[in-house]
Amino acid sequence: MPTLTLDLAQAALHGALQAARDHQFQPMAIAVVDTAGAVITCSREDGATALRLSIATGKACAAVGMGANTRLLAKKASEMPAFFGAIATTSGQPFIPHTGAMLVLDAAGNVLGAVGASGGTGDEDERVVTAGIETAGLTAR
What we know:
Strand order of the largest sheet: 2-1-4-3-5
Largest sheet: 5 strands, antiparallel
Number of helices: 5
Mean pLDDT: 97
Low-confidence stretches: none
């Protein structure tokens, strides 16, 4: 079964942080999780507020747990708030369905995990994780 290796996860993390600096976004936190929602690697930049890493992890876990990027999940959550509230309450891992996390796919289309970011707007967060995933030679969805 394909896996998201530490090397690939770190490449995605560093690529995301570089994209944030290239665009001069606010300080970011980035979390990379595997298909079980376990953190492979994460980082919080100097100046990023204390909760940013928890938020980035919650976004990544939501994406991998529901099998969709968090832009789509945010839309669905606005349509079904009670359902998504129940998931957040009962999930065994953080669950934040807000724009800023993308699934990580290999060349064959297998989901390997997810990358989440927090620090900018949802659009900025999504932009940096997409850049990071692509830097690692993988596909963001």
